[in-house]
Amino acid sequence: MTKKSDSDFHDSIKKLRNLRSKLCNQQTTWQDAFKVRDFVVCELQDMHEKLSSTEEIPPWCKEKVEHILKEILALPNDKEGDSNV
Fold it and tell me: Is 18 within the bounds of a domain?
């Protein structure tokens, strides 16, 4: 290899390493975001089940939880939704 091609090769390797590092950081960010999403969905599903089993709650509260879960396709026992988060 010539000096110029050696330099180009090393620059390319550095760029690839930087790209790999950036992608790994993004993957960690996405994994953290999905953990938060899973937590929120599980808590909302639990709340929905508890609200559905009692009549001492305001109807708007149960409806609001149902609306949120439907929007994120996570309503328990919803065939279209992702109830197994």
Answer: yes
